[in-house]
Amino acid sequence: xxxxxxxxxQGLAGSILAYHLLKYGKIIAIIDERESFTASTVGAGxxxxxxxxxxxxxxxxxxxxxxxxxFYREIEIETDTKFFTERTIYRPFGSVEEQNDWYGRSSRIxxxxxxxxxCESGAHDSIVNDQFGGVEILGYVxxxxxxxxxxxxxxxxxxNYIETHFNEDDLEIGRESIKxxxxxxxxxxxxxxxxxxxxxxxxxxxxxxxxxELLNLKMNSDFETIYNRSCFIIPQGxxxxxxxxxxxRKDLTPVPxxxxxxxxxxxxxxxxxxxxxxMNHAAGIRPGTVTRKPLIGVHxxxxxxxxFNGMGTKGVSLAPFFGKQFTKYLEExxxxxxEVDIKKYYSLxxxxxxxxxI
Length: 358
Fold this sequence. Notes:
The chain is of the alpha+beta class. The protein is 28% helix and 30% strand.
């Protein structure tokens, strides 16, 4: 049997791209090693339209957010599983100057669509330090582990799903198709996260892996609001909370560290006014990029090799929209957004491989 696509990796990116391709009626095979701890399974799943120390609107959030809301709810209906929740995110101001800056910024239309209310000081002071007030923002949380498990069951029932390690050296590339261990497909798409840096086909792309660590906390307080300043605190229900995260480009082992734990607890202690107990500690490696934009497109020489990767810390918001855009690019010859298309990095490939290919 010949497949339209062979997808490598069933993390967040691979799951979402596979779903879009199936909606186009494509015949798909998937290879995934089903690692226990990945960025997709241990990630916080926070979707925040206003980010960073300066509280600026995330890239394309006015387009991405309406799309992702409909996308995840469609899959919830399709799978009869609840994994996507709308939540209020409260961001305390750190100073009067920050408060004034936000008042000016919040008058812009593309900020107003995410703004719930601006709070005076003390509005949330039973939980967090709230000297200068803050802003309540519309956000979402995706239960990452449940989503990946739900998509695994969904895809296993609709695709040829092979649970094994993918060995790139065994890939055979022809003019019209690729072959791998008896599987023949028109195209292969690499959705393999930070492992793509070791690929001889796409290792030239400017991937910057980033380690992130998270803590699961238990508190006597029971609240639904997400608190976010320097670190985030996401309610999981029944007094359990997820807190983080760190951002480490040097240590790329998927092992939690004391340094990471101390970094998070220091930020928690500055934000929280309530006691907490650390239940467990996890780490994952995110596939970040130099520009913090995804890496999407086809290989400069092997047109039946493609990549859908580099979603980084914002994969929950980026993957749904760009998964559909990439599907239309592959199936309808539509254009890709110039900021995500790997064409702009082709020079890196040719500098490395000259004109002789791989």
